[in-house]
Predict the structure.
Amino acid sequence: MFSIPGLKVISLTDAAAARIREIMAQSPDGDAPALGLRVGVKKGGCAGMEYTFEIARAVSKGDEVVTDKDATVVVDAKAVLFLLGTELDFKTDRFSSTFVFNNPNQVSACGCGESVEIKPQSESALAAP
């Protein structure tokens, strides 16, 4: 885990926290209770990467657990350097509702909005004062 004073891997807007709390309240327990919303990134799409979401039922080694505004997000260990400093928002407009990543590491996005190009932070840059 990366613990940098004054910098969270991810922070939540009021709208995102409210939506995560709703999702957790509606999530059936199944084999294990829901711990929070797991976010990550994977290769895919025309810009190279896509954000991912799923219900977190366990925390793996290296995952970053962030609790903000009474909502919990588990950042997948492989995504921490890609999401460092990101604000997660939730927007609703006339035609859709969606989570929005305000990611300072995002270099570009495809025209359809389904994939992004992200430049990860380097571990050495994190250690610098």
